[in-house]
Write a structure and sequence with these properties.
Blueprint: E1 6-17, E2 20-31, E3 35-39, H1 46-53, E4 61-66, E5 69-70, E6 80-83, H2 98-103, H3 107-110, H4 118-130, H5 146-158, E7 164-168, H6 179-191, E8 196-200, E9 213-218, E10 220-226, H7 227-231, H8 235-242, H9 254-259
Helix pairs in contact: 4-5
Length: 260
């Protein structure tokens, strides 16, 4: 029976590479409709946690439930979209348009060489529109900036209409002046389209006014709560988690929001 309160439940999960403990006794419940920012220092296990959720790695201890179903038995993977770090190293010389890249996200559904019907064409158009790339749909992906390419990869993950979207450091390769607009696009996916988002990021200050929840990870889960609780953490507490001095910048984007 599906749990309507949470889409992902992680219960006492630990993971080791050989003898090195990467994650230890992680307990985390992600409610439907949340925008969860997962933060922590390099090597803290953030990407490993995503791979465990996606079944790309197998937990040594503990259990993971997806939509209330034990992960080993879960088959409906179209409900979960994923954009990996490797998307940032895409071969920009690859001869494919934005539309072709996004349509490749439907290959499993419609087959490799079959014609795209109206239903799927509409899905492709909506996915491209949702990331603000409609004007570039016929452009070769190699002609786009890093941030635009990343939007296309997100559209490819969205085209199968997932309920959860998992993103591993999506702003790597995005020009700093465009990072804020990129996060506003993710906020649109969450608030307006109702997609649950899991985001691994180093932008600890930038995300604080976009996400609804924060998980602070360093092998163990040191903090999990809503954004307000995270912003109330003392910098000394954060520095203890990170192992070095951390300054959390609080952003006031109320003026920006009023203009949107």
């Amino acid at each position: 029976m599906e749990n309507n309160k949470s889409v992902i439940d992680i219960n006492h999960v630990s993971f080791r590479y050989d003898k090195e403990t990467v994650l230890e006794d992680i307990n985390l419940s992600i409610p439907k409709g949340a925008f969860l920012g997962i933060v922590g220092p390099n090597g803290s296990g953030k990407s490993t946690l995503l791979k465990l959720i996606l079944g790309l790695l197998k937990a040594k201890d503990g259990e993971i439930y997806l939509f209330g179903q034990s992960q080993p038995k879960f088959k409906d993977w179209d409900r979960i979209g994923y954009v990996s770090q490797k998307a940032n190293s895409f071969n920009t010389g690859f001869p494919a348009t934005v539309r072709e890249v996004v349509s490749s996200g439907l290959t499993k559904k419609i087959g490799l060489f079959k014609m795209i019907g109206k239903k799927h064409a509409d899905q492709i158009n909506k996915a491209i529109e949702s990331v603000g790339m409609s004007a570039f749909s016929s452009r070769n992906i190699g002609e786009l900036s890093g941030g635009q390419q990343q939007r296309v990869f997100i559209a490819r993950a969205l085209v199968s209409k997932p309920e959860v979207l998992i993103l591993d450091e999506p702003t790597v390769g995005v020009d700093s002046k465009n990072v804020q607009a990129f996060y506003e696009m993710l906020e649109h996916l969450n608030k307006d389209l109702g997609i649950t988002l899991l985001l691994v990021t180093h932008d600890i200050g930038t995300i604080s006014n976009k996400v609804t929840h924060v998980a602070c990870l360093n092998k163990q889960l040191h903090f999990h709560g809503n954004t307000q609780e995270f912003e109330n953490l003392r910098e000394s507490e954060l520095s203890g988690i990170y192992g070095h001095e951390v300054h959390l910048l609080h952003h006031d984007h109320s003026h920006e929001e009023a203009e949107r």
